[in-house]
């Protein structure tokens, strides 16, 4: 049976685009899987929102993010593309981060070329490490992985800091250093996005759709036509849930109850159905104390 890592690498070689919605917890991951997507993206921003109630400004630690990746991996069978910020330090730290993420069940790790602490790619005020240092980190990541099907994604935030031409130079260098997938953050026009894909046709390129960000929003089919192999929607679920919870709390404050709000939520039974309560109960019954012993005696 093909492993998740091998499954992801095989799909990455195809021209058909992979749509990877963002998930920040296991429940969100299970919903993504049930909707038939082929992969999911663990968003560092989403984790910062949900775990800390803070924006994406590099506050989470390596162990916090790796632990959350393990929860997602346990909850679903999908390949997981996981944000690892800057790798949490130098090449030595990156090597440990790769091992922790691989142990957590991740299929593709995302490393970026910002200085620590990083910022969301669609924020201002970013600063970059040198291209040479980032290449050293990519080589360290490649050397540290145990499974050759585990993918290394290199992200550059250079468009906002150094301009498009330097971003393209960095992308070429990161590919040469061993990156399996490239993520050039925050291109501002369709022309720029098409140019990126045309310049690096031999390397899978990722598009990042951030609602309210600096990159125009396109559908998966439109991005596939441009040449992208993967598209992530990292914060869509977080934004929808924040909007929905805010509306619920406004209603609860004004009305004092939720009886007239049931058409806008999953009730107790439906949510447990999504989370597969009955399957868990069947497994529990099959492994109840004494049952296996009796079966073997029979």
TrEMBL record:
Subunit architecture: Homotetramer; dimer of dimers.
PROSITE patterns, A to Z: ISOCITRATE_LYASE
Similarity field: Belongs to the isocitrate lyase/PEP mutase superfamily. Methylisocitrate lyase family.
Functional description taken from the UniProt entry: Involved in the catabolism of short chain fatty acids (SCFA) via the 2-methylcitrate cycle I (propionate degradation route). Catalyzes the thermodynamically favored C-C bond cleavage of (2R,3S)-2-methylisocitrate to yield pyruvate and succinate via an alpha-carboxy-carbanion intermediate.
Molecular-function annotations in GO: methylisocitrate lyase activity
Assigned EC number: 4.1.3.30
This protein's name: 2-methylisocitrate lyase
One of the Pfam families matching this protein, by short name: PEP_mutase
Superkingdom of source: Bacteria
Protein keywords: Lyase
Lineage: Bacteria, Pseudomonadati, Thermodesulfobacteriota, Desulfovibrionia, Desulfovibrionales
Reaction it catalyzes: (2S,3R)-3-hydroxybutane-1,2,3-tricarboxylate = pyruvate + succinate
């Amino acid at each position: 049976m093909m492993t998740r890592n091998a499954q992801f690498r095989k799909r990455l070689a195809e021209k058909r685009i992979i749509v990877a919605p963002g998930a920040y917890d296991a429940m969100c991951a299970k919903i993504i899987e049930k909707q038939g997507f082929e992969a999911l993206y663990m968003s560092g921003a989403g984790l910062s929102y949900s775990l800390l109630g803070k924006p994406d400004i590099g506050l989470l630690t390596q162990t916090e993010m790796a632990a959350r990746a393990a929860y997602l991996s346990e909850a679903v069978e999908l390949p997981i593309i996981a944000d690892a910020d800057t790798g949490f330090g130098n090449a030595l730290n990156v090597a440990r981060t790769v091992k922790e993420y691989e142990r957590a069940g991740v299929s593709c790790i995302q490393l970026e070329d910002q200085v620590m602490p990083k910022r969301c790619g669609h924020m201002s005020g970013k600063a970059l490490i040198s291209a040479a240092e980032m290449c050293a980190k990519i080589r360290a990541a490649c050397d540290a992985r145990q499974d050759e099907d585990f993918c290394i994604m290199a992200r550059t935030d250079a468009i906002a800091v150094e301009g498009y031409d330097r971003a393209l130079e960095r992308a070429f260098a990161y590919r040469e250093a061993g990156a399996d997938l490239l993520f050039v953050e925050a291109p501002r026009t369709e022309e720029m996005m098409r140019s990126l894909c045309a310049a690096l046709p031999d390397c899978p390129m990722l598009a990042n759709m951030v609602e309210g960000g600096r990159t125009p929003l396109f559908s998966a089919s439109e991005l596939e036509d441009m040449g992208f192999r993967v598209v992530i929607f990292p914060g869509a679920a977080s934004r929808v849930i924040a909007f929905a919870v805010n509306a619920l709390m406004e209603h609860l404050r004004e009305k004092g109850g939720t009886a007239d709000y049931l058409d806008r939520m999953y009730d107790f039974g439906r949510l447990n159905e999504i989370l597969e309560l009955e399957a868990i109960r069947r497994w529990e019954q099959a492994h109840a104390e004494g049952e296996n012993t009796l079966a073997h005696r029979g």
